[in-house]
């Protein structure tokens, strides 16, 4: 079959050229964009890697420096050396206190001390044995270099947590020998190092930072991985994987590289080694994320290519079908097919949501799609064949465009040329179009025309200009704010700071950006100087506006402290989500403020891409999809074939929340037959990988001329980035609006006609309105009284005409209630893009309270000066010494008490420079004392205590305050207390011995006295027994003295007036002491009543008198004194402690030889004596000490060698009471008549002696070894026991417990107690519980007989 009527060759060539040009151009554009994005990511990765390396290096240097300070500190090393030598608990505590302070200050997991062999000898967390191998390796390095070394990162095998340590050898400052030990500081890497490594400063879906090191032939990943958690210090990858960036870093490669990460995913990476360590830092990001944006532009080119390829193929097919002249019907069918294909090709062009235009060499329109007609507002017939420049381009833009077209006509290579020019619509309006051009050439290479694609960017440019104007307006507003403003993101990291904030904090915005807020904005409580809670942390936690607490102090970077006040508020988007926090604060130390400019706003939005790739498709009436553009795979992740096979996939990928809107839109459009423009709807879809994308969907129904529905053409545009930009814009607007609405100052903006175009909440309130809408568009004349409005207008006019700011104007203006208010006002010009003054921005602050505060401050300053003078007077009168030194040790001030101490300790006075105090270097005394709260100093026989406190301004020490106290008397009291403690211990031991001796003596007494009553005992033996009895009585008296010393003696306490007793003793002593000793009695007539045992009081006075007698062998004066005193009152220390009330003071003084300090040290110790052997027992003063203590008293002694001694005894004064004496009178030696006595005694020998004695006295007996068994014998119904005789102290249920148990059961049987100890309750209390009598061990038969007879007689009478 011959082929005729073929289409012109130029059309086929044109089609091929277009296809090739678009394919080549799209590829070149895609490669260019990918290269640009990749370079930007390389720079970002390199910056992040360098930042992380710097942070890690600083972190390492800080810990190494701390270890060096600790190991080199004189006090620590000397204390450690002392402990290593002595290994005692007290010295260990001193070392541990220093280590615990280090742990608490810097948060170490453990602090360990290692000996020379590398074994742990001290650990705050109880570690023992050898440290981890990494620590031993670091110790070898530290010993070799003499400096601290850091261990490798390692996993603790017990806690399963990552650790790193710093180890430092400890040397003595006075020795150049080997170290005496080493200190190991263990750090939990998950708490400090990992968060520093793993934070990423910008949003990313795949980026992460890695810290690696070499381990054998593998790369060891040291930190937690974003895409493979739980593998820190566990994941190892062979070094042979040469494409692994971490392996490249180990091999010495630095800078930016491409490769595959531990997952095998292609990545871009930046590599930097960590100085001083075996670590390498790798910052990487998936290549897919880098190139995600680069495919946006090429999609449109590929889409157009597909459309034109289809058109070209259709043309070739048409030519082929018209080849036969023989068959007219075939010709008709071919022509009809060609028409259909042309129509279809035109429809494909019409699907595009951009203008597609073809011009010939004379710039006449040869092709335009439906979108182009809509943009021009004309029909296709009104456009085709007309000169494009003359008819559709405004006159003002024609010359520039013709110049560009001339370049094309000259044959210059202008592929993918981009330009923007206005387009003239049919209604006379202009639209700004962005063109992407492709040159058309014939077979000879001559230019035959141009194919161009145009996008209407009028609204985009208008929005950009509006945004720039609004940003300029708000930026100018923020520059006029006199408060510090800091904005953070949702993690609390600084994003921007205004200049006032920079000045107040000492941080520049560049330095602070990306850092946690607490680093640049450090606040403390000015009263306690403790860290205060950061308000931003609370806003992020609770989502509410938070004001700073009272007494908040801002500590600037240079240490300057400023009191601040104001608030922090959340920044929320339109959906209510929290984007960040704005913090507004004011320096309260400066009363007048100047308007400071806000920091220049960072570039917030990027310009949208020139072209976007469209997803185009044709939906047939039967629901099938005859065509689906290849760009669908880029947008949805599904290939075009998937939709062709399953058209239902279009519905399945729509987000469930948007499905109804999508479903309602398509049928509505399908029913429209009026040829109206396509309708647009936006909704979300789910990509194949699960990601959510926003698309803009446009579709239009296609009908034949006869009304037949042919299907729907649709165009989908990925607008996810636009949606994100809209959210960013909303966040930015919310940020700026939140800032100005939360400022207490009135902030407003006016146009060139002085009409308000912005007003914050404070300004709205000042205008008397409820919301901003009520004031916008109005002048001050409509809002304020005329006089005030005129003044405001004059100021506005001055700024508008001169373009100069008007700052810090203070005026007195009455409020609406007529109250005068002081206002501080500033106004600055608002300029447009050309720099012309287009309005003003103003800020007004109510400074009435500030003015009032200034007046009050002046009054307060005068008051403070007066108070300072009073304080100085108080300091001058306090008993404690107060010294003020400058930083060089010069005495600037000293109160009278301190002047005496300085003279005694250093021979110094005001104006002198101190180097030593009490023989100790001043620098040593300015540090914390090694023990306790005070340094101890000595000057002659005086002891002083001293403590120093530094006077600091920021981090600089300006001077020192010394507190000095004479502690001589306090030390004497402390020595006395220690002596009393030693005596108490000796007394406790002596009491136990006395109890056992009493049991022994009881047996001897009972048996010897019973033996004496036997008739057949020879006289000589009876004499021996008498001698035994006398010695037993002598031993009993000695034991009584021991019990008095140990305060375990039995007391018969009663109301006793000491004056008659003292007179009686003085009379007795007059007859018993040598005549050359004069006795003097000093007292004032009155009552001197105490609650005491009369016998013990006599014994106490007699022992002291005998001691005085022995001190005056040549004679002298013995002075006895009695007085009632009040001690322990307000501000007074007395023997009974503060508030102890009235006391009776007894003094016994002699003029004898006195006592030396050596004798005083053992004064009250039992059996200590200075007399010759046989001349004294050494128990006299020990017994006095015990008697005073048993009566809740206190004894003091003053003595001087050669001048005499005075004992002063304080006894609590007692109120008048009746006679509580429980003394039992003995009526001879009565005998029993068979009455049954229950003997309760745990000592078997004593028990047998008592049973034998009672039998001898005529009593029947029953025995029990303890109180528990005695209770069994005394159960109700057992009436045969008449009286109980029980020991007090027994291992099981002693005598007092037995008495109480019987009385609790209602058993009133007589009970007699035997004791060699003091009773736990006083005897008077036991009488009240029904005690029949008590006997001291060892009892005599006479005492037993009398006590039993009295008890039985009392029972019979009752």
Secondary structure blueprint with pairings:
Layout: H1 9-72, H2 74-86, H3 89-106, E1 110-114, E2 120-123, H4 133-145, E3 149-150, E4 154-155, E5 162-170, E6 181-188, H5 193-198, E7 208-215, E8 218-221, E9 236-238, H6 245-250, E10 255-260, E11 266-273, E12 280-286, H7 287-291, H8 295-321, H9 328-351, E13 355-360, E14 365-368, H10 370-376, H11 380-383, H12 388-392, H13 395-409, E15 417-424, E16 430-441, E17 447-456, H14 458-479, E18 484-489, E19 494-497, H15 499-505, H16 509-512, H17 517-520, E20 522-525, H18 535-542, E21 546-547, E22 552-555, E23 561-572, E24 578-587, E25 614-619, E26 627-628, H19 632-636, H20 640-645, H21 649-652, H22 659-670, E27 679-686, E28 692-703, E29 709-718, H23 720-741, E30 746-751, E31 756-759, H24 761-766, H25 786-802, E32 806-814, E33 820-831, E34 837-846, H26 848-877, E35 881-886, E36 891-894, H27 896-906, E37 916-917, E38 920-921, H28 922-925, E39 935-939, E40 942-953, E41 956-966, H29 968-1012, H30 1019-1046, E42 1054-1057, H31 1058-1072, E43 1077-1083, E44 1089-1092, H32 1094-1111, E45 1116-1127, E46 1141-1150, H33 1157-1160, H34 1180-1190, ...
Parallel strand pairs: 43-45, 49-50, 49-51, 51-52, 52-53
Antiparallel strand pairs: 1-2, 1-6, 3-5, 4-5, 5-6, 7-8, 7-12, 8-9, 10-11, 11-12, 13-14, 13-17, 15-16, 16-17, 18-19, 18-24, 20-22, 21-23, 22-23, 23-24, 25-26, 25-29, 27-28, 28-29, 30-31, 30-34, 32-33, 33-34, 35-36, 35-41, 37-38, 39-40, 40-41, 42-44, 45-46, 46-48, 47-48
